[in-house]
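Practice problem: predict the structure.
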Amino acid sequence: MARKKRSLEPTAVATNEPKDKPRYQDPFQQRVGGTIEEAGKKLEGQGRNILYGLAALAVLAIVVWIIYSWSGRSNAAATAALGKAIEISQTRVTGEPLPAGSTEKTFKTEKERAEAAVAEFQGVAEKYGGDVAEKARYFAAVNRLSLDRGAAIAELEGLAKESDEIGSLSKFALAQTRTADGRTDEAAALYQELAGLSDPIISKETINFELAKLLEKQGKKQEAVDLLFSIVKSASEVKDADGKAVTLTPAAQSAKVKLTELDPEKAKEIPEPAPDPSLGGGMPFGL
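Answer:
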């Protein structure tokens, strides 16, 4: 399956394809695409908060990945079932009564939503095999973290043994649980393993940013600073087809904020992009 390196966060992806060339979307993509677009609007400009939250990372990462990498090898019923389960996992949680006539489904608590999502994903995994079942098991494990952490981690550990996309995503989730549990050396090893992959599903910017935060937590401030500097410097040097600086990804933006917090003088070594005259206001590109 051909894949492109992508950041976890839902960012706009430039394309040089002709405008009149239709982009195929299977039933799964059609079902989930709207949800991701809306999530992107709500979370726009909040990359740092997203990166600091395990739940947001898990949900956004896997949904964005599936939208762009789904191969169509599974039948429409299986993809639709998985899409329905994902919708449940992203359903709004609120204690407020819905407006009269509203057909929106909501949950009163995060626990209720997680329970419903796990049940739905388990149903998909039991009914369908192959890639769909593997994806459903991953989703179920991530949603189960808030319900039965031990069982969820055991499931992720099993999935992480695979050498495919789900294996990589499971290792990333495990690294975060290891960090939360104070097993920082194990977490660092997982991040380093992911960063060493030639074609990781999760962008190396995001992996290295998480590793840098972990290094800081371990008291290795200079190593964290050096890694953050590398992330931001590399990202700031990326140019578009016209030779202009491109907007930093949310992961790179978060790394820049963190670098400035840890070592303001080091952060100043990275030059700000020159103002783009076409923007009219003279503001730094990407702000």
